[in-house]
Amino acid sequence: MSTPIRAIVGLGNPGPDYALTRHNAGALWVQYLAEKHGHPLRQEKRFHGWYTKLPFSTGDLHLLFPSTFMNRSGQAVIALSQFFKIDPENILIAYDELDLNPGILRLKMGGGHGGHNGIKDIIRVYGGNRDFPRLRFGIGHPGDRAKVVNYVLGRIGSDDLNLLEDSFRDLDGYLTNIMLGDWSTAMNHLHRSEK
Fold first, then answer.
1. Which of the four CATH numbers 2.60.20.10, 3.20.20.10, 3.40.50.1470, 3.40.910.10 does domain 7-190 have?
2. Residue 186: its pLDDT value, please?
3. For 26-51, how does the pLDDT look when each residue is reduced to its tens digit (9 = 90+)?
4. Exposure of 176 by Cβ count < 10 A (0-12 exposed, 13-18 middle, 19+ buried)?
5. Which of 13, 101, 113, 115 counts the most CB atoms within 10 A of its CB?
């Protein structure tokens, strides 16, 4: 895979009630990146979210945390995409994944929505195009489908939050590789066996 990344959108729900919930794993990574690089996210109405730009020698990296609720994530993604003329394959969507254990992350290009409402809406606004890169952060599964909604909207426990933050730090060393499209190097390191 050799798809350079020009923007990262971290999916989540807005507001303090959702700030540390499992469903906000992708948004938490974007917030982490913005703070680590000293470019805090600021509300940007034209992108329907909180936005900043990180300058790198390889080019600018746009970061966005949509202020729409999860099931309207596509509204923010398409606004950013159209304004900066960034194709879907150059926007990395970061989000939570029930089918991966906490602390596990996976990069992939394209695929279905897997029941994730944010991904479902992004596919919708792109006219059915599924060919955009994804970074999935494992949050684990409650073991019963009937418990999923409350589980993803529940707060991340301290142990799982530590694992998630470890994943963010793991990604630090491979952000440039991801931006340049050198996904194989990043994937070889990051796609390790389950912890």
1. 3.40.50.1470
2. 86
3. 999 999 999 999 999 999 999 999 99
4. middle
5. 13
Decide if 23 is catalytic: yes
Q: Compute the C-alpha angle 43/83/1, nearest 5°.
A: 100
> Smallest Cα–Cα separation from 191: which of 27, 62, 1, 7?
1
Residues 6 or more apart in contact with residue 82 via CB below 8 angstroms: none
How far are the Cα atoms of 61, 111, 161 from residue 166, in angstroms, in the given order? 22, 26, 8
CA angle 23, 29, 35 (to 5 degrees): 135
Q: Which amino acid is at 45?
A: K
Measured between alpha carbons, how far is 102 from 111 in angstroms, rounded to an integer?
21
Exactly one of 23, 48, 62, 116 is catalytic; name it: 23
**Mean pLDDT by groups of 10 residues along the chain of 195 residues:** 87 94 97 96 97 91 96 96 95 95 90 86 89 93 92 95 94 91 85 57
CA 109 to centroid of chain Cα atoms: 13
> What values do phi and psi take at 73, rounded to 5?
-55, -35
Q: Which amino acid is at 29?
A: W
Q: Which residues pair with 135 in a beta bridge?
A: 94, 107
